Amino acid sequence: MNSVSDEKIVDKIIKKVGGSSLIAILQELQFHYNYLPEQVLGLLSKKLEVPLSKIFSLTTFYQSFSLKPRGKNLVKVCLGTACHVKSGDNLLEKAKRDLNLSDEDMTTKDLGFTVEKVRCLGCCSLAPVVLINKDTYGSMTQEKMSKVLKKYI
Ligand code: FES
Questions:
Q1: Residue 63 contacts residue 26 (beta carbons within 8 Å)
Q2: Alpha carbon of 78 to ligand 1 centroid (Å)
Q3: pLDDT tens, position by position, for the chain (153 residues)?
Q4: Probe ligand 1: pick from 77, 92, 120, max atoms within 8 Å of CB?
Q5: Does ligand 1 lie within 6 Å of residue 130's CB atom?
Q6: Most-buried pick from 80, 95, 99, 127 (CB within 10 A)?
Q7: How far apart are CA 95 and CA 142, in angstroms?
Q8: What residues are paired with 75 via a beta bridge?
Q9: What is the pTM assigned to this prediction?
Q10: Regarding beta strands 73-78 and 113-118, do their DSSP bridges make them parallel or antiparallel, or are they unpaired?
């Protein structure tokens, strides 16, 4: 991304959303870039005259924001209590193995997938649960995980 086009995008989003709703602006920026690039947050800080530290505190507080590039498909593996007791951790490891992710990596090199741990997706009776983009998969097993991931490749 170059800074001229970044600046146009930031201006357009501020104009669309209005300058007073920082969270709404960040949501729009994240939707556009699929994450929040640091240089874009710097531009936003200057344009809104809001300290960069305040912007970073918001982006790190809300789990839906990402400061790192995310994959096209977001795989959220629930590790809340109900899912944890039904081996949610094994599903996380299985997803990472199937996507050839190392221990540290959560996003595939081709930016096809990002795997994230989440704390309760709000449908505990379906535990263990995995959410891929907007699709919820309940009573998930390691075997089902491989089949489901293939749908998004
Ligand atoms: S703990 Fe997983 S959906 Fe609630």
A1: no
A2: 6
A3: 567 799 999 999 999 998 789 999 999 999 999 999 999 999 999 999 999 999 999 999 998 899 999 999 999 999 999 999 999 999 999 999 999 999 899 999 999 999 999 999 999 999 999 999 999 999 999 999 999 999 998
A4: 120
A5: no
A6: 95
A7: 8
A8: 115, 132
A9: 0.83
A10: parallel
* Nearest atom within ligand 1 for CA of residue 78: 2
Top CATH class of 73-150 equals: alpha beta
Is 82 a pocket residue for ligand 1 (Cβ < 6 Å)?
Answer: yes
52 token code pair: 């960069």
The two tokens of residue 36 are: 């929040």
**Tokens read off for 59:** 């982006």
Q: Give the Cα separation of 108 and 89 in Å (integer).
A: 19
